């Protein structure tokens, strides 16, 4: 008998598109914990020029929900910003002391004219408020961009270790597929999956036309594709 996998309450998980480059700190924090601290990728290669033109998604959970799972992530950056659909993130919920943050984040924020980025240190974790005053913490992220006409490419998919097994990754993939079809009109999407993560993407409807492995940054990968015309992608599963 297998243990019951906990589920993430639908009302608790918030998935939003990043509207401004200064908000990228939220995605970046998750990526640092997943890819740099968790998998050992060099910090210098984790962020690339593609980030400035990608469509980024961030998944957020209420801090209270996160606290019931495991210890909250020890993150350090927070931003106040808005999206084209209204307020995404509000003010920091408690007194904060500004700190010097990495040069790459400073440079990235400067690429967004007219937006006021506020990166602060808040007791060792990211805490931002939603529209209803709920304290939210970034727990997952991904990015996507046009690979060629009609075909998107998805990458930098990461969920914090303490939040895995809650279908957050699946929910983010569903959201990405809807962005790909409804906003960009793509017919297909591809990705380079770490070989040991391929099963997750297969559960999301991806196929492996060629099982040949190849190395990217010393990790074995495999190319995977998904036909976005599938009826399963017309709504959240």
UniProtKB/TrEMBL annotation:
Cross-referenced Pfam families: Acetyltransf_7
SUPFAM superfamilies: Acyl-CoA N-acyltransferases (Nat) (SSF55729)
Tree of life domain: Eukaryota
Residues of the N-acetyltransferase domain: 87-229
First and last residue of the signal peptide: none
Gene3D superfamilies according to UniProt: 3.40.630.30
PROSITE patterns given in the database record: GNAT (PS51186)
Record-level Gene Ontology MF annotations: N-acetyltransferase activity
Record-linked CDD domains: NAT_SF
Name of the protein: N-acetyltransferase domain-containing protein
Organism: Tieghemiomyces parasiticus
